[in-house]
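Hi there, hope your week has been kind to you so far. Do you reckon you could talk me through the fold, stretch by stretch? I've dropped the whole record in just underneath, so have a look:
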Amino acid sequence: MPDLPERNPEQDPSPREPSARDARDPSETEAERRRRRAQFLRDLAEARELRDRVQPRRAKAARLRHAMRMRTFRW
């Protein structure tokens, strides 16, 4: 395309998406990771409770489906 400048890949590498391995800080301790995970799970549970309060019919249907799955599950 004539209106775009020439790109030299050695000077201007294309930006790449950071992978999960890159995003993880190597100096992060296991305790910090567990603390962040626990906070995430608390937030997730809170969001589910809120959704259940806001949509009681859907929550009841989900409870009934879950109960049916548990009754028909074979050990």
